[in-house]
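User: Inactive purple acid phosphatase 16, Ambrosia artemisiifolia:
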Amino acid sequence: YPPKLTPSSSKSSTLHKLLLNHIHKPNHLFPFNLQQQMTHLPNSWCTITVLFFIFQNFVTVCPEHGLADDDVVLQHKSMTDGYLRFSGDSEGSSFKVALFADLHFGEDAWTDWGHQQDLNSVKVMSTVLDVERPVYLGDVITANNLPIHNASLYWDQAISPTRARNIPWASLFGNHDDAPFEWPIDWFSSSGIPQILCPSANASGVDKCGFKGTTRLELMSSEIRRNPLSYTRFGPQNLWPSVSNYVHTIVSPKSEHKSPLMFMYFLDSGGGSYPEVISTIQSEWFDNKSQEAENDDVTNGYLRFASGSNGSSFKVALFADLHFGENAWSDWGPDHDLSSIKVMSTVLDVERPVYLGDVVTANNFMVQNASFIPEIVFWHIPSKAYEKVAKEVAAGRIQCAGSMFEEGVAAQDAEMGMMKLLKQRPSVKAIFVGHNHGLDWCCPYEKMWLCYARHTGYGGYGTWPRGARILEIVDEPFSLKSWIRMENGTLHSEVVLSN
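Assistant: Predicted structure for Inactive purple acid phosphatase 16:
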């Protein structure tokens, strides 16, 4: 951590002076109203102010009163159903995602150093925002350094580079985003920031002396209602205090319907206000949600006639002995698969075909479960499986993509079945986490990949160069690959995660 600045220092920031100003005024307690003081802040803060008020009218949720699953409706035409569509419609169209991890906005917010780190973080994000739809992968702010209730002000600053470019995004929580405020020792020294004036013992109608943090629910509610470009969603109430649990579906640019190309799952791995775990009920939610997604068109086991008139008919085509994948390594095999598709196309004026066995010739396959819709999963704190992988790397038993192994894995407090569940799902291609600022590797594990993002923000520990992990999903033929893009624009550590 850098040295703390004293109130008499010539380097004291405008925000620092503003804090002191309010501290010395009687009857002004935290959380004070920063909005009334925005005209006194530097230009970068004025920009944030404008954006803050522009989006105040988009009030669509009220999580403080309780929400059931899927009760949040985002008022934006491209985000009302959780489907994300490629921007192009040609073969080989790509869909890119930038992972911004561990931004830590608001760290040492009372010093010039803290304010400058936030500006530096904005610059890092700006260098990589020629890609689509960023994902904020936790620790967006350092709440334990924020002496104000309105931590959403700093959250708003963190998402401003994305919003200014009119790019949609999604976010989930890390362990610092709603951590309790930690009093700096310097505040209690004769040369440090004076203690806050508390109300007198006989004062009435005022809050008690103390700092009230901003909860996960408040942060997410603020992001969603002020930003129509946000894809962030509330999870079902029975998962709370775990909040950021939701799924988005990527569909093909050529699909007239909502045919899934890939599923993106977001999970809240805790920390801050509660233990660093993914709970058993979260694992169950993921299992149920993934099965629902794969069977989206068959919700209750009932098939209904398309017409309601007398004499309506219901047709079924029986496709038998297709044997796709036979001699898949030769030209003969793929040509016969195309011929089979043509046969099926000539009879698909009937309803709901039934595939009557031997759809594929599995004894000719050298890969497993190619028919599953691919899935990727995001959360913040790595599972204990990351520790196992790190030991395998140290022993030289596996090779990974990534240039940095400069610290140990700081894993979750406990495993509650999520990794066991993911290992049993061959459709899961990769897991992405943040949390460890010195790690950015991708390693194979149980037919999937375990990957770190890259430390993006200038807040938080470590002096490693900043950057972001980029994901690219390509349609026809499907592929998922990833690489690291650094703040200086260089690329490294590209890896194919699925094809």
